[in-house]
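User: Please run a holo structure prediction.
Assistant: Happy to. Please share the sequence and the ligand.
User: Here you go; the ligand is fe (ii) ion.
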Amino acid sequence: MTRFIYIADTHLGAVGPIYRQQNSYIERLPELIDCLARWRKRRNDVDFVLHGGDMVNAGTTENIQRATESFAPLSPVHLSLGNHDLTEEESLDVWLSRAPEFFRHTGPDSLIETDDCAIHIVPTQWCDLPYRWESSLDPRLLTDQAEQIRRDLRKRPDMPHLLSTHSPVFDVPREQTGWDEPFHLPPEQFTRSVMALVNESPNLCCVLGAHSHVNMHVMNSGCHFVTVSAFPEAPFEFKLFEIDEGTMRMTTENLGEEVEFDFAYDTERSYAQGRRCDREFEFCTQARRGVTVRLGGGNCSTGGRIGR
Ligand SMILES: [Fe+2]
């Protein structure tokens, strides 16, 4: 059994107002990390933490150094870099030289292999400069990244594979937000590029994103597309993935009952937590290889416009 915690959008070092969905308690991040470390210790069966990006609010040397100290209680932590992690010309070099513990190999892209699954860590690109974010948000994967994913998918065809990249692949379902307008709709080209991988790879079962600060679970072509709400926002949620031979289970957990400070929850924005079907599922990982699908947590939405 492989178990890992999935968190994202911690925005360490943020000062003043930033993008958020729920009430944010970034100033309490050290306490929240300690609280999560205690939760994990109590369970005593979680193998690692996967951070889906925007670990820091700006990729400065000072923030990256702080991140190595702040996230040490959750070690081992794997990081799939987000746009906020790459704001400076030197951000990538500083991550790799000062925070190598977050990266499995010498580069920012890597493959985590366990006895039960393989997880591709593939940072989203945002502009013509690789591994850099200036101002525009135009998510994409480099040709080399897509080719490496394909090679790694072929290496372990017997395993369920997960892909972690910061940008969501689909917008948040309108049934979840209750709005007429799409929310966090990525460019069609990005969705197409990820769906090309999904549709040619029956063993790619789940794509993990972040960035929107919303819990989302969309199914398309038998693949699960998940995003997680921001960890420092009430009620401090994260995902627990449990994968064993033939089964993948995801639940959404929170620290609302455990934190030792008062916080307020904005009920007007409860869409960020999602419906039950956005928060949990269980399925047979062989489903995409032609075996019966078993889905828990009710009927989840079918993602947008691009299918097989
Ligand atoms: Fe982001």
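The longest strand covers residues 237-244.
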